Amino acid sequence: MSERAHSMKVVIGPSPYHPEEVIPELRTRFPELSFVHCEDRAQLPAALADAEVYFGWLTRDEFLAAKRLRWVQAASTGVDSFVRIPELRDSDVLLTNVRGVHAVALAEHAFAMIFAFTRGIKAYIEHQQQHLWAVRSLRESLVQLTGQTMGIVGLGTVGHATAERAHAFGMRVIAVDLLPVHKPNYVDRLEGEAGLNALLAESDYVVITVPYTNRTRGMIGTDQLALMKPTAILIGVSRGGIIQEAPLIAALQEGRLAAAALDVFQTEPLPPDSPLWEVDNLIITPHAAGGYQSEAQTIRSVFVDNIARYVHGEFPLRNQVDKQLGF
Question: Is residue 39 annotated as a catalytic residue, yes or no?
Answer without folding.
Answer: no
